[in-house]
Amino acid sequence: MPAIVVEGLERAFDEVLAVQGVDLEVDSGEIYGFLGPNGAGKTTTVRMLTTLLMPTGGRATVAGHDVTHEARAVRASIGVALQEAALDPLMTGRELIRLQATLQGIGNAEGKRRADALLERVDLIEAADRRVGTYSGGMQRRLDLAAALVHEPRVLFLDEPTTGLDPVSRKTIWEEVRRLNDEGTTVFLTTQYLEEADQLADNVGIIDRGRIVAEGTPEALKDEVGSPHIRLTLAEGSIAAAEEACAKIGRLLPPVDGKTVLVEVENGAADIPLVVRALDGEGIEVGSLELVQPTLDDVFVAKTGYHLAEEGEEGTEQEQAEK
User: Fold this and answer.
1) 154 by DSSP, 3-state: which?
2) Phi and psi of 158, rounded to 5°?
3) pLDDT digit string, tens, across residues 68-123
């Protein structure tokens, strides 16, 4: 049985349709990466799947239970770590995990055992008796993850778990997600980091403006994009002239900035001399040049028409509606 089945899921906020007919299926035991910019509808979708928000259309089941009609059964089957951890800064890490165990109906002795095991698991045992308010951002994320695991859920929802973390803390979260999945936990991971989805996910769904625009394994999605591309940065010369010269050799991709040209080439490294000679013939000096294999960013551009990194911090109307 699939762990998650979503059919035509919708959520409207007044006149804004933040999620527009989402369909997806997540197999038991897989990591599903839900990729998209701020305001795309990721968090709204997760809130519906975790029973925190009622759908205004469509249906969804999680762990075999309907999110609308069997909300209590859904909550008993899932663990949830949202973007902003709801952690009491005056409690210690140990107290917080034991409280979570109590709320899940776990007895004192078993709750103590699980708390100790989970704190050890997320490398917080030495800080277990410190107040949560003294924890770093990475430590709080790990504690929130431990709290989500206290009742041994079948499905774990992680909503942008590494946003704002340093590279070391991010890697630690990645390692724990992999380990949980190896033990059989289904993970639904929302992220705006392309590398995170590529590294962790068995399957990826790309959401843009409330709609799923692509879905598949990272490898299959990258294969769809096709050929590698050459990325070159100009030292001197006109960007327009460089684009005109490169367009004779391959297909131009949407620009990243005002001094970088991306050109898709069919023959990979064999086309590099052609590009260099074409630019040299126009008197254009290249600052740097590299051959780039297709990435999830290329997939994102192909499906949406823009780079994920271009999205501003304020997000879209949908993101404001989500808040």
Assistant:
1) coil
2) -120, 115
3) 999 999 999 999 998 777 789 999 999 999 999 999 999 999 999 999 999 999 99
The two beta strands, 211-216 and 203-208, are antiparallel
CB atoms inside a 10 Å sphere around CB 56: 14
Spatial separation of the C-alpha atoms in residues 52 and 42, rounded to whole Å: 14
Question: Of how many residues is the chain composed?
Answer: 323
Question: Residue holding tokens 């007895």?
Answer: 107
- Do strands 57-62 and 260-264 pair parallel, antiparallel, or not at all (unpaired)? unpaired
The rounded distance, in Å, linking the Cα atoms of 119 and 154 is: 20
Residue 136 DSSP one-character state: -
Full-model pTM? 0.80
Q: What residues pair up with 49 in beta bridges, in sequence order?
A: none
Give me the DSSP letters along 196-263: HHHHH-SEEEEEETTEEEEEE-HHHHHHHH-S-EEEEEEEES-HHHHHHHHTTTSEEPPPSSTTEEEE
Q: For the packed helices 137-148 and 93-103, what is the interaxial angle rounded to 10 degrees?
A: 20
Residues 6+ apart with CB under 8 A from 310: none
pLDDT at residue 322 greater than cutoff 60:
no
- How far CA 256 is from CA of 40, 168, 194, 218, 307, in Å, comes to 21, 27, 16, 22, 8
User: One-letter amino acid identity for 191?
Assistant: T
pLDDT tens for 5-63 read 999 999 999 989 999 999 999 999 999 999 998 889 999 999 999 999 999 999 999 99
